[in-house]
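Appendix C reproduces, verbatim, an entry submitted by the partner laboratory led by Prof. M.T., so that reviewers can inspect both the input and the predicted structure.
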Amino acid sequence: MSELLARMRQVLIILCTITCLGGLPMYTRVATVMLLGMSSSHAKVPVQAIPLVGRVELGAPEETADATVACMYPMTGRSASYGRDSIVGIKLALDELATDPASPKLRVIVDDSRSKSSFAVRMAEDFIRQDHANILCGMVSSGVGMAVSRLAKERKIILIGTDHASSRATLEEGHKYYFRVSSDTWYSHAAGARYLRELQQKNNWNKLAFLGPDYEYGRVAWRDLQQALGLLEVDYKVTGTYWPKLYEPDYSLYIQALLESPPDVLVVSLWGGDFTAFIDQARTTRLFQQMRVANLDAGGDYETLVSLGPKPPEGLILSARHHVNWPDTKLNRHFVNRFHALSGRYPSYSAQGAYAGMLTIALAIRQAGKVTDTESMISALEGLRVRLPKDPEGYVSYIDPDTHQIVQAQAVGTPVPNTLYPPAQVMLGNWHVYDAESLKPSPALVKKRRGESGN
């Protein structure tokens, strides 16, 4: 009988593992199941040591929760680290909210979007129908975020974007149910345009090239940069635009083209592992000796700084939606240290976005009274002020009532030696800080962008 019970437990473990490992490659799943299928006398593989992926539930149980929040993040593939860090950011926010008896109790479901729009839309539908989600949240890929935003509009359910950054989501395709709590491509490139104007005043650069992923995020980032430079009346010549696919493994053809027609400044909008791969491949050439390279929205991510090693390429200009070492405030230090204590690593910018999402949702519910009153929730979110780790001393982030985009300051810097956040050996410094209100798109620009789209 004991052997029969043991075999039954083994079958249950295998079935659960197949479900949880659904996002992994087939050969990984097969190998794992084969290992689990061996008798315990032949295989000493503890179940908890197997890296599971897939659905995670955090916070309050369904029966006592005041709201169910359903989030989608990548947990597999090249961008999986953003999903991993977002989950830690959510945990930090839930721990913080739990210390306040007046805060609503949130049930948070997180699942793997697989960075695929159609898959994420189906998942969002399941969250609404099967899990009775009151609010959708998350997304890293702008293509995924835009697709789920259209569903949210159709289903009249609030969506809180915590990481994807295409400004088109709040401008051309903005709607009453969509809000974003991390900086977008407009704010990042409006700050970057100011940095480039200051740089031009110093070294008279004239030739500009752009390299970005050939999908929603990259295309909108290029348009935002051009519009921001135009508003500042920066004079420049475009020497080329380059469009590798998302998750491109080989950038050699693009690097060669840049070397054959070198700009003074190359702006790159690759992110995560794509940007790291580009840097690693470009380092084997003279690219960094021939041009300044800027990544104004995602290039200053902690993982990228780790990958630079002790001697980063010359001339890098970087920023991100949150920095481990800026602003040097008590709140940011507390957030970074708590993240490290919980996870054993330092946060990527996605963590602060997810953390911001949970605090924003909780504050809105408190003001609205109940999450099921959608119109009151929308009214609470419009103009909502929420103090975040990214905020410089004396400033509080708020959601613009017109665009539903959070309004935040931006800092652009260059790599400098810094070993306070290992394993990184450099961090950003030589900061140029641009206040939030100066970056906010003007009513005329918002009207123009929405008018061109027919909204």
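The longest helix spans residues 349-368. Additional entries are available on request from the coordinating office.
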